[in-house]
Amino acid sequence: MSTQSGSRPVYLVDGARTPFLKVRGAPNPFSPVDLAVQCGRPLLLRHDLQAAAIDQVILGCVNVLADELNPARLAALRLGLSESTRAYTVQINCGSGMQSIDNAFRLIREGSSELVMAGGCETLSHAPLQFRQQAVEWLAGMRGAGSLKQRAQQLAELRPEFFKPVIALQQGLTDPIVGLSMGETAELLAHLFAIPREEADQYAVISHKRLARAQQEGELEEELEPMISPLGELFTQDDGVRPDSSVDALAKLPPVFERPFGQVTAGNSSQVTDGASWVLLASEAALESYHLQPRARLVDSQWSALDPQIMGLAPVLSVTELLRRQGLGREQIDLWELNEAFAAQVLACLKAWQDSDFCREILGLEGAFGELDRALLNVDGGAISLGHPVGASGNRIVLHLMNSIRRRGVRRGVATECIGGGQSGAMLLEAV
């Protein structure tokens, strides 16, 4: 599915995100809506906007909490927006935060909205523990037991293992169609494209080094909004970065998914993380009405899909089709954001684009797409070093690309990501 450029241009005006907080065995002190509000409030305060100025609020979220159904609406109201402002939540796994931007893009381009907040939020640390199916059936039997004898019979069938909890996050990261976890799909790509473990570890080290440098040089300050917990704890930076990371240290980590010979480890995979991100999109009319200064133009987007077993390869489909439709070549893109679900997955995409046979047979090109300049790819690190809160990541990479284009004074950038289930999204941004 594609999104064609229409008669009305769409602009990215501003954006903000929370620090991404690594999950460390206990719930972090924020719910998904808490995170969305903490970075959304300063974003709105930067602009002289009335409560009713925002036409719609669209928020991506995958693990929605039971007491926060439709987090988009809750966030909108807690942010003080008008009660008449429509707000809805979208879910397409890892692409949810990008899908919210795409929905806003379409609404503005087609003339049904002028100013839209599009975001993503996730608290993987709050993923629930669930009862096993045996426990559910046993409890149902107890409720249905009408006599003392029936209750005694039901009690006799009770087994302790019934109540061993099921980790919902682990279930959510496993594809039910092919029966593979996301990490196992990365292992398959590492095998298909002959990616050595050392190469994946080298990529992971670069991600940490780049994020550490960006933090030290203040390059993330314009997108980060500090957070304060209910207990008064202050969070100012992404806390998963390891500046001292090295290939030697990562080589000591055991494989997680395919022991003992697997390539994918905790060190060369994205971190399990909580976070939120917003982007403010506007039409030309909204820019004039509210005296807004655009940071970039959202030119076009593309969504693609393939076999869930190789879900991490999907960005090559969406990016290639996006650039082909726009008449652009690889060398005309100045910056790339490719979400780092796994180092092996990113490297597989890069190798696929360099494979002439793959590009002819799968992408319909005359030859190889070509080699991406690594110096232009994820220039300030990515999900391996700062984390992957699945509902927010697609939004964050667009936000960061918007800021990077302006800060570096370049013309074009592409943001793309793989999506659990065998899909991908890609967006083309252009300087204004």
Write a brief structural summary.
With 432 residues, the chain is α+β, with helices and mostly antiparallel strands.
Descriptive tags:
432 residues; 17 strands; Peroxisomal Thiolase, Chain A, domain 1; alpha+beta; two-stranded antiparallel ribbon
CATH fold topology of the domain at 2-127 and 271-427: Peroxisomal Thiolase, Chain A, domain 1
Overall 3D form: globular
CATH class of the domain at 2-127 and 271-427: Alpha Beta
Looking at the overall shape, the CATH architecture of the domain at 2-127 and 271-427 is: 3-Layer(aba) Sandwich
CA-CA gap between termini: 26 Å
CATH homologous superfamily identity of the domain at 2-127 and 271-427:
Thiolase/Chalcone synthase
The percentage of residues in β strands lies in 15-25%
Tell me the helix content.
25-40%
Low-confidence runs of at least 5 consecutive residues: none
How many helices does DSSP assign? 15
- Largest sheet geometry: 11 strands, mixed
Q: State the total count of DSSP E strands.
A: 17
Radius of gyration: 22 Å
Q: Which structural class should the secondary elements be placed in?
A: alpha+beta
Mean pLDDT: 95
